[in-house]
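Good morning N.,

You mentioned wanting to compare the apo and holo forms, so I went ahead and generated the holo version with magnesium ion. This is what I fed in:
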Amino acid sequence: MTSSTATTQTVFAEQFREFIKGETNDAVRAMREQAFASFTASGFPTPKNEDWKYTNVASLVSGQWSVACGQSQELTPADVEIARRFGVDRNGFAALNLAFGEIKVIRIAKDTSIAEPFELNFAAAENTAIFPHILVIAETGSKATIIESYASQTKSFTNAAVQVIVEDNASVTHYRVQKDGAEAFNIGTTEVSLGRDSRYDSTNINLGAAISRHDIDLKFTAEGGEAWVDGLYMLGGRQHSDTHSVIDHTVPNCVSHQTYKGVLNDHSRGVFNGKVFVRENAHGTDAQQSNKNLLLSNDARVDTKPQLEIFNDDVKCSHGATVGQLEEEELFYLLTRGLPETLAKNLLTYGFAEAIIRKIGIESIKTDLDAAVLNRLSVKLEV
Amino acid sequence: MLLEVKDLHAGIDGKEILKGLNLQVKKGEVHAIMGPNGSGKSTLSKVLAGHPSYGVISGEVLYEGKNLLELEPDERAREGVFMAFQYPVEVPGVSNSQFLRLAYNQKALHHGREELDPLEFNDYLKEKAKIVDMDPQFFKRSVNEGFSGGEKKRNEILQMAVLEPKLAILDETDSGLDIDALRIVAEGVNKLRSPDNAIILVTHYQRLLNFIVPDMVHVLANGRIVKEGGKELALELEEKGYDWVKGAANAN
Ligand SMILES: Nc1ncnc2c1ncn2[C@@H]1O[C@H](COP(=O)(O)OP(=O)(O)O)[C@@H](O)[C@H]1O
Ligand SMILES: [Mg+2]
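and this is what came out, ligand included:
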């Protein structure tokens, strides 16, 4: 451990001692103290850790962050029980998140369908660290949409977590849009568990931040579940974005779809690590995974590792990853229609990314993302 | 003269495919280039459109009296050269109307004409779509993505209609079309025929020429024009088969 991370840990420890004094709920206090102890024990991950091999967070953990925590809401014992299940042993960030977590609960009552999406917007002020922690519980037969978005403008540290429980026959659509500024750090964890015949559809967009890391951990706990875990990272400058995803088929007859796309320009770097487990008794599993990357510059780089681990024969699985440049024939086609080369390339890049944005069911977000992507590519494309 | 190809030698990967090709096309004319598979028809089309993989070894191509070969493909397009692809390319994620408006406006900009906003363009596009009897639902769809072979070919002619080229090279636009689709596409091309433009129809089969009657027919074999004549030549060729001209090619 370097001395600067040690100092950072000390700074967090001092802030935690103050922070925990304000915790009035005994169960929650115990949970936070345990989480902080876990953080103290593990510290921040370093590239020596296999899961952090490509993502060096030294510049983040050497920062002096002042914890900015709002009031958590009043938690019921059931809420606490769920929060306690959060995987603090995943890494120091997850532990730190739960220790300071500003916990908010979204509970969708049994058999209710909520048309209006829940919008959660986060932005950290300069030199602060924020720790949003959201519990989404979609009770049996319910239906809801969550929009989680990040837009920190300055140098700051967001360390967020969302736990989603999709109970039997429930359906959750989840959009996560990370558009932090170029100096921000964004660490996020999403844990999802799916009940019988439930449905979880997520789209994860990473456009911003100096360093961003998103861990997704999805588990089918009963038969008949179906999940989409899709995403896009579009990077430029010296941006670094890392997605680590685990989709765990522990039970029979569930379906998972994963399409992640990356567009990397300048000196940016992307990491995609997607594990799909099909456990021994998970017959009838249908799992598809793909990660496609477009490198727009010779200095950009992507490390992609789709991993499929199958312990059952009666399954339908496919996975694959590609890293490439724009197709020459597609480019030529656009040129022969009179589009100048730069515009043609940008239009093809937009088309590549749009395949992910297209599935977003909320017009305002879609339009906003289209605009963000087009703006980055300097294409004027109103329709 | 709109297009003059003089003793053109061109190829790919060091392999010579066009071996001294000559062709002259005037405004208002329709020329058919016929030839067996592998004779170099698509190569000629792509060289004229400026495909980067094809290299010109020697010879000249003049378009409106200027050297066409020194222009980039997009410059050629904005100057009025259009090629309908034998195998149109799919462009996922970009809608037909977005794409066509960008292309239209790039050309308008180049010629100092006014650009069209999305609403204006939509009206313009609807008019043009009638030429190839195209359903406006295709405007919103990604360019050629999931289109049938016939729909792709129709889409090529729609692009031609929108861009109003001076020189259109249609590379086997008839291939893969059933008779009804062929008729629609051919009628579309006939509507676009004008004294101000010229069309080069590249085809393997004579049947397209029943619908679009050419002023001249050139027979390409082994990288050279081996026979030229009026529209009757196509019928003669149909009757006698390509072996008739292959002999001529080999004799040269
Ligand atoms: N990309 C390529 N690489 C190598 N040879 C090619 C390529 N494209 C075409 N050729 C060869 O050039 C010749 C002419 O092809 P082409 O112009 O496509 O003919 P046509 O369109 O008349 O069928 C053929 O022998 C073909 O095999
Ligand atoms: Mg051909």
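Chain A touches chain B through 28 residues (CB under 8 Å).

Happy to go through it together on a call whenever suits you.

Best,
F.
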